[in-house]
Amino acid sequence: MSSKIYRIQSYQHFEERIKNSLFICHCAPIFSAEEAFDFFNEYIQSDATHNCWAYKLIDSYRFNDDGEPGGTAGRPMLQAIEGKNLINVASLVIRYYGGIKLGTGGLMRAYGGVTAKCLDQATLIEVVPTKKIICKVPFSDIAIVKSKFTQGISVVEENFTNEGVVWQLEVEENLVSNLGQTVINLTKGKGVWEIPEIKQ
């Protein structure tokens, strides 16, 4: 199994009729739980039989069966997301009941299946792990150090002090060590390159 993780580039929509029930799936990229619920609230249909959902962020997930038997809707949707190594995605499946019961297995296949088919349409973007870095550089070295901030490095915040600049950076993990050594070398040891402590 691939260790790479991905997110979807844009909103996707898929519909399928299964034994007279209409399943409508909406999937979208999200970056917080709040964005997920905003997305669900935008597309939920009050006249539908069920509005089931799932979302997955890098460090959390949630799902809801909305009245379907426990474990037959939201969890299979989440499994479809995880099966494609996706994060930062929300999926909503709206069901209009068509008069024929699908049974537990049928429901799981339906909800998981329409979610997977919806996600199959999406363009995937690889999510590269990053680290937060604090970088301090004297005024005399700002230009040369900043010239090394190429692809894979984002300046989140820039603050000037009496001695120079303090950057808060987001750096791809595979660049952290080499770039840190480069900063120290370019500043002749005067620069600071550190990973901030995470407060518990």
Automatic annotation (TrEMBL):
**In this protein, which residues make up the domain named Impact N-terminal?**
19-119
One cellular component term (GO) for this entry is:
cytoplasm
Q: Which GO biological process entries does UniProt record here? A: regulation of translational initiation
Which Pfam families does the record associate with it? Answer: Impact_N (PF01205)
What is the similarity comment for this entry? Belongs to the IMPACT family.
Name this polypeptide is given: Impact N-terminal domain-containing protein
